Amino acid sequence: MIRTVPTAPYKDQKPGTSGLRKKVPVFAQENYAENFIQSIFDSLEGFAGKTLVIGGDGRYYNREVIQKALKMAAAAGFGKAMVGQGGILSTPAASNIIRKYGAFGGIILSASHNPGGPNEDFGIKYNIGNGGPAPEKITEAIFERSRIISEYKIVDAPDVDLDRIGSVDLEGMTVEVVDPVADYAELMESLFDFDAIRNLISGGFRIAMDSMGAVTGPYAKEIIEQRLGAPAGSVRNATPLPDFGGHHPDPNLVHAKELYDDVMSADGPDFGAASDGDGDRNMVVGKDMFVTPSDSLAIIAANAKCAPGYAKGIAGIARSMPTSAAADRVAEKLGLGMYETPTGWKYFGNLMDAGKVTVCGEESFGTGSDHVREKDGLWAILFWLNIIAARKEGVAEIVRKHWAEYGRNYYSRHDYEEVDTDAANGLMDALRSRLSSLPGQSFGDLKVEAADDFSYTDPIDGSVSTRQGIRILFEGGSRVIFRLSGTGTSGATLRVYVERYEPDASRHGIETQAALADLIAVADEIAEIKTRTGRTGPTVIT
Ligand code: VG1
Ligand code: CO
Question: The CATH number of 408-541 is which of 3.30.310.50, 3.30.2020.10, 3.30.9.10, 3.30.310.10?
Fold first, then answer.
């Protein structure tokens, strides 16, 4: 039986870079999740009788919201819902299931790399039929709807057993509980040379994969340990936990430091990898070498033909604006199209659908391709293993040779987290007001060539996204970029992205922060970071 429940709107349900993210106590307010889910359905058309995919990263509150979403999907008229067993679907696996089974769309419950638990973060995101994050015009419509919503519909029924694989009826809608791993593992096997990777591993190459107590655990165990034959225990923190075991499931040098230290130790593994809460990010480290995500994109693109799924070559490359230009040099050399988009995976979807690009990446530990429409952590890790197996070289050798051939883009991101919101907005406004006067000015040896607030016109549908980050471009290709995060849940996070291009191979061994020191100082001088935020330094450096 369908019940119509009166509700009052919440004013703060504006989706950010990747869906709606709030603390659990905010989501647990009366009708909060229901309002947002109904606002999603009210913003869509033509889904009667069609399939909706539902799954999440297993964090605290995942199962509760899945039950709500299932009962509301049934009331809204979906014909079928496919949900991962235990409520689990990594973000790339959900994207794959939407595409493979021709679903109308999907709801992914995740706050990605943010911590989980009763007082930590939760999130809801809608993905469209191509498997990718909803474009801005849909997220805008959802937000507009959430501001005036007055009722939602839900079926009265007992909870669905999420742990038993198979189909059940939910008041006229079929709910199919599916194995979350099988389709994804099959897809990976179709793209990469598993025989070559198996040989690499049986030859003694040691892998350590840290799933950080988050969603990739079961995926990595099946693929890396079962199908590729790595010894049991190669995948660490492999059980998805509601609080990620207290970890901050963000694969970077700060939060995956244990793994990094292990790989760097004398008798440590040859290859280290980690993924985030919902499985779309990756970190790759080798002996004596941390691979920056920007370099990773460039190296994957340059070596794509090593992998059977990309043997014919790639169509083009896209990167988010703050991501380093390392990939641009590969595109130039290979004669490929190169696209620069705003931050967030949703901007890559149209380019991939139109066949303009095959691989995409972001500096925030995100890499992926048109095999799905999300970034994909394990995909990137497997791509690296495939390249290592094909080239018979280690991570450090591959990276150094890449720099020697293309030059090195020194790169670092400095985050100032939980800054006072007014101070952060004031800093950005002040920068904006100086944009026209900066070109021509010199700061030490650095002369500003151009400065703007990045704006993007989608080449496929013509949609325009403005105010996507302040860019200060210096002569010679160095740059500093300022943006405010759109995924945080308290205060504001200022991100400062710093990059310098160094063509000279004899200067490729400098420590990154030292290589960028003058740019970092200029960033502070121009944006008045210390004085405006009251911070003496960043909270996280990646
Ligand atoms: C951050 C990253 C961005 C990424 C987004 C979602 O956004 O910078 O590159 O696409 O997170 O990643 P922001 O607005 O906080 O800078 V995930 O792994 O949360 O889906
Ligand atoms: Co993520």
Answer: 3.30.310.50
